[in-house]
């Protein structure tokens, strides 16, 4: 639920104070939504540095999740 509210779909990122906007760059979905918004509504190109941060954060979460899954794979069915 928290991730849904931290992804600016119904509100623009501009209403968030500048000192807290770095949190939105750590949310990969927020960066992708803003890139679509900027491309479609703004008529410009997306911020490629933010997209690269989102890519590496997504890659990190994938690798970390895969590691945790492989570590507990034998017991995974017992807990789920």
Write up this protein:
- The protein has 80 residues and is mainly alpha-helical.
- The protein has one domain.
- Helices cover 69% and strands 0% of the residues.
- The longest helix has 24 residues.
Q: What are the main properties of this structure?
A:
elongated, 69% helix, transmembrane helix, mainly alpha, 80 residues, ABC-2 type transporter
What's the gist of this structure?
The protein has 80 residues and is mainly α. It contains five helices and no strands.
Question: Mind sketching the topology for me?
Answer:
Layout: H1 2-6, H2 21-26, H3 28-40, H4 48-71, H5 73-79
Radius of gyration: 16 Å
Distance between the termini: 20 Å
Q: Tell me the count of domains.
A: 1
**Given the helix and strand composition, which structural class is it?**
mainly alpha
The number of helical segments is 5
How much is the average pLDDT? 82
The arrangement of helices and strands along the chain is HHHHH
- Strand % is under 5%
How would a crystallographer describe the biggest sheet? Answer: none
Which ranges are low-confidence, i.e. pLDDT below 50, for 5 or more consecutive residues?
A: none
Helix fraction by DSSP (H/I, runs of at least 4): 55-70%
Q: Based on CA inertia axes, which overall geometry fits?
A: elongated
By DSSP, the count of extended strands is 0
Family: Belongs to the ABC-2 integral membrane protein family.
Keywords: Cell inner membrane, Cell membrane, Membrane, Transmembrane, Transmembrane helix, Transport
Organism: Candidatus Roizmanbacteria bacterium GW2011_GWA2_35_19
Domain ABC transmembrane type-2: 1-72
């Amino acid at each position: 639920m928290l991730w849904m509210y931290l992804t600016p779909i119904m509100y623009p990122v501009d209403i968030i104070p500048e000192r807290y906007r770095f949190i939105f760059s750590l949310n990969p979905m927020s960066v992708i939504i803003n890139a679509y918004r900027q491309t479609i509504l703004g008529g410009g190109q997306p911020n490629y540095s933010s997209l690269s941060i989102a890519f590496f954060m997504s890659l990190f979460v994938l690798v970390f999740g895969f590691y945790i899954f492989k570590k507990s794979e034998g017991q995974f069915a017992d807990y789920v």
